[in-house]
Amino acid sequence: MTAVKTSRKDRARATRARILGSARDLFTAHGYQATTMAEVAEHAGVAVQTVYFVFHTKTELLEDVYTAAVLGEDQVRPPDTDWYRTATTSTNPDEVIAALVAGMLPIARRVGPLQAILDTIADDDVRALRAEKEALRRNVAHTLVTHLADLDALRADLTARTGTDLLLGLTSPGLYQQMTAEHGWTHNQWATTLTRQLRHALLPPDTPTT
């Protein structure tokens, strides 16, 4: 009986992952509004009733596609990752910056193609979803900037609020998408430049380089 239950759970997880992947492909290729649940079902090789049973509405499907992109292949929340623990516990400001770039930039790469959907769709449910996701991003960024402030490693002309704003802007999925997909920068090029820009934007000018 246990083996049967496990097999069912595995199949359900595989079906869910297939639907999410199909939805992501179609949303980013054809647009959120132009994509129907029936098209997602056909692309995933399942009945449309299955898509509705698992996700209920297209907005919920979009939310889960976005969440899966944030969590990545291992489906781990940012606060539970090694990079986050390093960025919030290290006493070396350069190490903090390096850790947050190493952790936040891959998220931006995965989320970037989806961000335009949240930014441009004139739908109340999607707007609410965008506000919720931005609030989560702000909470993470605020924690990181507050840690720098606690180390006396935040520029004197910044408050935790303005430092958080800078971090959110410079690490945004939209900016990542613009720099890489539109301007042709490689991921590594942008990571190197972003590290330098964050160091200049957040740390005091006399912070020694390690």
3D architecture notes:
With 210 residues, the protein is mostly helical. 76% of the residues lie in helices and 0% in strands. It is built from 10 helices and no strands. The chain has helices spanning 2-30, 37-44, 48-55, 58-71, 82-89, 93-120, 124-150, 160-170, 173-182, 187-202. Helix 5 (82-89) packs across helix 7 (124-150). The longest helix has 29 residues, at 2-30. The chain is elongated, with a radius of gyration of 20 Å. It starts with a helix and ends in an 8-residue tail after the last helix.
Secondary structure elements and pairings:
Blueprint: H1 2-30, H2 37-44, H3 48-55, H4 58-71, H5 82-89, H6 93-120, H7 124-150, H8 160-170, H9 173-182, H10 187-202
Number of strands: 0
Percent range for β-strand residues = under 5%
Helical amount among residues, as a percent range? over 70%
Q: Compute the number of helices.
A: 10
Please, what is the average pLDDT?
A: 91
Outline the biggest β-sheet.
none
- Could you spell the SSE succession in H and E letters? HHHHHHHHHH
What oligomeric state do the depicted chains represent? single chain
How far apart, in Å, are the first and last alpha carbons?
A: 57 Å
List low-confidence stretches.
none
Based on CA inertia axes, which overall geometry fits? elongated
Radius of gyration: 20 Å
Please state the structural category. Answer: mainly alpha
Task: Give a short summary of the structure.
The protein is an all-alpha fold and 210 residues long. Helices cover 76% and strands 0% of the residues.
